[in-house]
Write the structure tokens for this entry.
Amino acid sequence: MKSEQPTQPIALETAHLSRAVVGKVLTDDINVQVQVGEVVAVVGPSGSGKSSFLRLLNRLDEPTGGSVRLNGEDYRRLAPQELRRRVSMVMQTAYLFPGTVAENVAYGPRQRGQRLLAEQTDALLHRVGLSGYQERNANNLSGGEAQRVSIARTLANAPEILLLDEPTSALDEDSARGVEDLVLDIIRERRMTCVIVTHNNAQARRIAHRTMIIQDGKLVAIGPTDEVLRDD
Amino acid sequence: MIELLASSDRNVAVGMAQAAAAIALCLGVVVLCRRFAVHVERETAVSLARGLVQMVAVGVILALLLHGSLLIGALILLAMTFAAAVTASRRAPEIKNPLILSFYAIAAGSSVVIAVLLATRTVTTEIVVLVPVGSMIIANAMNACAQAMERFRADIAAHVGLIETGLALGADPAATVAPYVQSAVYASLLPRLDMLKSLGFVWIPGVMAGMLVSGASPVYAGIFQFIVVAMILAASGIAGLVATVIMRARAFSSAAQLTLRAGEPDKRRLV
């Protein structure tokens, strides 16, 4: 495994991060540092523990060993709600809440008692290519549209770090490419720190500065994407 | 007591003959079901036997304790509440200590209502009045508790993705399951609301029928029955609400992680 000297401040750092459930090890002693503005892809076979690792990064699941530090601070010191606002996740399936698209986009700020202005909602929807969708019923959208709403909803939280759990795997090829382009544009223009789980190595090459390979819950390789995925 | 038992001998004999007729009718229904490949023979036989033995036992206990103190009546109701909690707790095997949860919910609903019934002198402290009315309240609180737990568990199982999406966006656990709390409490109340609506039109409950048979004023019997059914609704509401709120608290860890995964008992428990 190649060790590299960080050139940017460390946004996210795991140390011996592990999780086991009923004797089964899902994540096994993973040490990784993600720099500010860096995009790291997590690849590996199905069931290797990629999503399990990602869920530990915003504490959707509880580590049974090791730690995660956000900007140098142990994330257990933060209220889970605050942590998840700062480290927001887009899930594989876009689960939208009953109501309009605008209500979905405003969900995160509303949880903190904040109101998302109509102009802010418009701007977010415009950014994800859904101008004019504000009053649409969220349950009547295509898979690609729903995932775009999901991305806009996550961005409304103004996260420092974006976690993406196979955001295009549930979509048809055209929608998947459109959502991938959108994600790529957003993380580049906002210089977002991002960890993306993908089973698609080509997607990792298009998006990620570095790639980590997980097998059986263990980190088996990490480095510049072209080097790590050289043999594919 | 001897006089009481002696006078009831004839009634017991008549009652057993009538019970035999009722059992025969049930067995006829079982045979009919069997023709449609619905096999409930064993379950029905066990239920009939248990029901008869339990009710005769209750009758004997009531006869023996007819003139017992309020304390004895309270102990009987407490034992009934515990038995009801054991039954209701089977609906939530994924939850930690479901027996205690069910006991709290049923005890909260039934104790408040029975206290009000006693305070307003709707029922007296005589065991022969307190225990039968109390048992109706407890049984309905048990059903409401079980229905609320079952509905909440099923809704959580069906909406794990939506709930975790809410959590991932920084929502409080309570906010992510608010719609399911509402539907669980409503589901637990619905049968009792229907019961209240149909009172007098569709059915004349047993308590009223018993009062009429024993010569009470029909109007007072009707009012008394309304009070009992209204109190059943109140007890059910409290039991359903308490059960759901406790279950909600136990569905999440202290770090706002969804730990209740219905159908996957213990799978998410940390080692």
